[in-house]
Amino acid sequence: MMSQLQPLDVCLNKPFKDRVRHFYNEWMAEETHSFTPAGRLKRPVVSLVCQWVADAWYDLPDATVVASFKKCCITNAMGGTEDSFVYEESSDKEPESSSDSD
């Protein structure tokens, strides 16, 4: 029941975290990194991580944010006209294949 009340958990966290992870992986793939005196890789600076978070948020389509609220029945529509979104499958799941593996 809690997931039905929290739009971030329902539709936004996975694409947001995937995007932040993408930025981190790009940073890791760069060849220019700083190291500690012990030879360990230094973490990215806070301002860069904040930029990744901002970019990841702005990369989320507005329609995805709106749909996440509708799926949780959090909407301005009076009369329950958008309540059907609760029972629709989310589009971020993998489609099931109907082909046989014989």
Automatic annotation (TrEMBL):
It comes from the Eukaryota. Residues 3-69 form the DDE-1 domain. The lineage of its organism: Eukaryota, Metazoa, Ecdysozoa, Arthropoda, Chelicerata. GO terms for molecular function: nucleic acid binding. It comes from Ornithodoros erraticus. This is POGO family transposase. InterPro entries: DDE_SF_endonuclease_dom.
